[in-house]
Amino acid sequence: MINTYLAFKLEPIVKAINSVLWTKFLMYALLALGIFYTIYLGFPQITKLGLMFKYAFGGLFKKKDKKEKKDDGEVEVNSFQALATAIAAQVGTGNIGGVATAVASGGPGAIFWMWVSGILGMSTIFAEAVLAQLYKEERDGEPVGGPSYYISKGLKSKPLAIIFSITIILALGFVGNMVQSNSIALAMSNALNVNALYIGIGLAVLVGFVIMGGLKRITTMAELVVPFMALIYIIGSGAILYIYRNHLGLVFSGIFREAFSTQAVIGGMAGTVMKEAIKNGVARGLFSNEAGMGSTPHAHATAKVKDPCIQGFVAMAGVIVDTIVICSITALIVLATDAHMSGAKAVAITQYAFTSAFGKAGTIFLAVSLMFFAFTTIVGWYMFGEMNIRYLFKGKKAINVYRVLVIICIVVGSKFGNDIIWDLADTFNGFMVIPNLIALFLLAPQVKKAYKNYLRRKDMGELD
User: Fold this and answer.
1) The whole model's pTM is what?
2) Phi/psi of residue 135, nearest 5 degrees
3) In this structure, are residues 151 and 439 in contact, taking their beta carbons and an 8 Å threshold?
């Protein structure tokens, strides 16, 4: 009854707000910010591509004596753990259902524009990570940082920082995690014929175990689970592309042809194929990699690095993994199997692709993949919310209350699956982004100064 009432009364209002907030403002603002930082910093995502891979993944192939917790009790997080935590939050249901929806709505050309927005977003996320490092703090023995910290300390605007903290707690910690929980529950209940509520309770217990261990347990989980889940999904999707390899030529030609097509959209919609491709592709790229949205800087603030810009380069690698690799491979299997023409919606489109290739086993495989993606996102988003709880309140009492509320949201979300929850998540996300955009623009000189200092130190051999 409540579910129906909310859908009837609130959904039209929330959709109208989102249409103005995202389609007419934030999408263009985030894209413009990516263009600005790309030019302002001299195309770092291209000129420093080698450094990005070196800092992000080079340490994986070296024998290292890492010490995650110092003798005085202070938690230390290495650069890769911070990246893994950021990717845990970035890679979620949007990489499976959101990309499929973008292809179905915007056509194959949407993928090209998703790549463009991802490449531009790399410079924005670089700036976010640098600012997070410059203005991070230590509270209760753990490193904390993010937009609320660089807004209050860099812009000297505590009211704007408080607005950001409140909106991200609502957007990610509560409403966003309900969305992720619902995605897991639906996928697993459909694949295994298990009551969604039981799945929600089991998920809540698992999440509770991880988050009760604090930052150290969260980053350790991310370091172990994220590479595994990404690799398994890539292998499964790669198998589909091999089966449908004869279709790939048409897939890629369609991507580039429709990305610039001036043909009118079929079905009476105003505009061209290219316009729809740009709108859907850019929106999906921005939503997926979260560049400029203010979420991932919380993870990158935790890393202990020799220079803030080092974590900036590492942050750019997160966009590569999220948008260029995982989103792209989802799009390719959807196009190769013609799943975007199946009439299905969201995750069901990608599910159609896996079922076409592997039958029932494909359905179960995707459900398990979605479970990993959404679970890690829940944990990552929880952590981002906790850092803002720490900003707003002193002591651990507020954190314990926040943990309980998040766990309740996970259980409720598993059964409360109305579209209004998805729409509300977009609304709160939008309100969260605005303070961060203001800070990123006004603090750009600080980013440029840090970047120049990094280049100077690099030339002098201080960072080798």
Assistant:
1) 0.90
2) -115, 20
3) yes
